[in-house]
Amino acid sequence: MTVAVFGIDLLIWGGDTHTLGGTELPFWLILAIGMAGYSWLAIVRSPLPGYIALMVLAVGSLLLPSVECMAGFMMALFLVARHGTQRAAWWALAGAVIPVAVTTYNGVSYYDSVTALFVIINAGLWTAMVGAAWIAGRALARNAHRLTTERRWAEEARDEATAVERLRISRDLHDSVAHSMTAIVLQVAGVRTVIKRGSTGVDVDRVLADVQSTAEQSIRELHRLLGMLRSESESGTIRVHTLEDVNTLVSSARDSGLDVVSTVHGAEQPLDPSISHAAFRVVQEGLANAMKHAGEGARVELIHEWTPGQLVITVRSISGVEVRQAVSGGYGLLGLRERISVSGGTLHSGPTRDGYLLKATLPVTGQSAPRASGSFNEE
């Protein structure tokens, strides 16, 4: 941009080296002074030195009326308005009166007789162009400030949502592990009592096998905590929904007018409590998004695919009549992705040609799928 405005002003100048007093300056000297002044626009990070340099060149053109610096000055004014403070921008705009006046005077001086209308038009055109450069700079500055503020708010909201979801996951997993540990303690105490009393008729091996299975499940739950800590003040417990509660979700969605078709493929297998709860949340989020965004007459296909080692849940919504854009914070999928990742599964989501697709792959009996989550567009 510096090279461009310098080239424009050189073209307007035309190479005339005669001063106001009639003397003639060397061409190379004028070119060197111009290059030195314009270079401040590109070298100095702060826009003020470039503005001052172009202001000096504009005033200096009184000695050499053919020299034109307005393209460079408008760029300097734009940079001050764009990157400077509001106060600096207003002062720069006020200072623009000087180069506009000098340029108008130099333009008028080329003619023997001029009218007031000519002076007004000349000054008005330069004023309009200078004002446009300043307004463009201020508009970009305000837009950048707004984007920065909104980005900061979005990051804070995202961090808060992530923290809340991590706390919820930690609480859910902790409750299930605590229950398992209690069961282990009671079972071991019972086995010790049987051994001490020499009682017969008790299948100790079966009890110990149950203890081993419960302990293995607890270890898997602890591994999924991922080092998350929970504040002591958040010690309240909540009911943890499982995959068995999905039928209630489907019934509620149907009562709300949503056409839901649910199918199951494969033989059902046992799930860890955290995995079962994550499966419930996938269905809940998919149905909720369909009710909010798919529109009247939408249809949802809910598919459970049981395979050895994993459960794949697919919630495919087919949009109906769009009635309005629902207001949504966009944190549901963020929290769900965090939950699925902690559970050792994968989550993919994205729009399709006729709706939206939410697909989660969850490990069964402690087998973890590769950790990844993302979005996609399905043809």
Question: Could you walk me through the main structural features you see in this protein, from its secondary elements to its overall organization?
Answer:
There is one protein chain. 28% of the residues are buried. 59% of the residues lie in helices and 12% in strands. It has 379 residues and is α/β, with parallel strands linked by helices. The chain has a six-stranded mixed β-sheet, covered by helices on one side. The two termini are 43 Å apart. Mean pLDDT is 77; it is low at 226-238, 323-329 and 366-379. It has three domains: 2-114, no CATH class; 169-234; 243-375, Heat Shock Protein 90, CATH 3.30.565. Helix 10 links the parallel strand 1 (259-265) and strand 2.
**Radius of gyration of CA atoms, rounded to a whole number:** 37 Å
Order of SSEs:
HHHHHHHHHEHEEHEEE
Q: What is the total number of structural domains?
A: 3
Query: Which oligomerization state do the chains in this entry correspond to?
Result: single chain
Observed structural traits:
disordered C terminus; 59% helix; 6 strands; elongated; alpha/beta; Heat Shock Protein 90; 11 helices; 3 domains; 379 residues
